[in-house]
Amino acid sequence: MKNILNRRNLFKLGAAAIVSIPVLKIGNVFAEAAATATEELAWDACPIVVPEKIVKKLAKDKAKTRLAFVANATTSTHKKYKDGAACGNCKFYKSKVEDGKITREVGGYAKCTMLANKYVNRCGWCKSYKKADDKYAIYKYLKKEEA
Ligand code: SF4
What we know:
This protein is α+β, with helices and mostly antiparallel strands. The protein has a single domain (2-136), classed as High-Potential Iron-Sulfur Protein, Chain A, CATH 4.10.490. The protein has helices spanning 2-12, 61-66, 133-136; strands spanning 21-25, 30-33, 45-47, 96-98, 101-103, 109-112, 118-121. Iron/sulfur cluster (SF4) binds next to loops.
C-alpha cells in the first residue's frame, strides 16, 4: 500500500517544468535521470514533470474530465479500464514504434488525437482508450499493484 501512495504522490509533482527529467520507474524505484537531447525516457518509466517546451500544449482539464482521464492509469476506477492499458499503448497517442522502440515522445508525453492533439503523459488513461498492439508489446508494465 505504501508504494501505491508513493506513486500517487509522485504523480502530483508533475506540474513543474524543469530542465532535468526525474522519472518514476514502474517497478517503484525512483530515479533521477538527466534529459537526453531527444528528451526520451526509458520505456518503463513514467514522467513526473512536464518538459518546459510542452507546458503550454498540455491537454485541457475540461476535456480530460469529459473523458474520465487520470494521469496515473492504475488509479482509474472506470469500468472500461483494464490493467496494463495506458496512453503509452493507445492508438490515439501520437507516438510511433520504430525499430522496436516507442518514439516521437517528448519526455514521456505525446499528443492525443482525442484531446485536440494536446499532450498527455504516457502513464495516463481515459475512457476513449483503444489498444495499439504494437505499442502494448513494448509498454505493458504499468499495472495495479497488490495492496
Ligand atoms: S485516447 Fe488514449 S492517448 Fe488519449 S487520453 Fe485517452 S487513453 Fe490517453
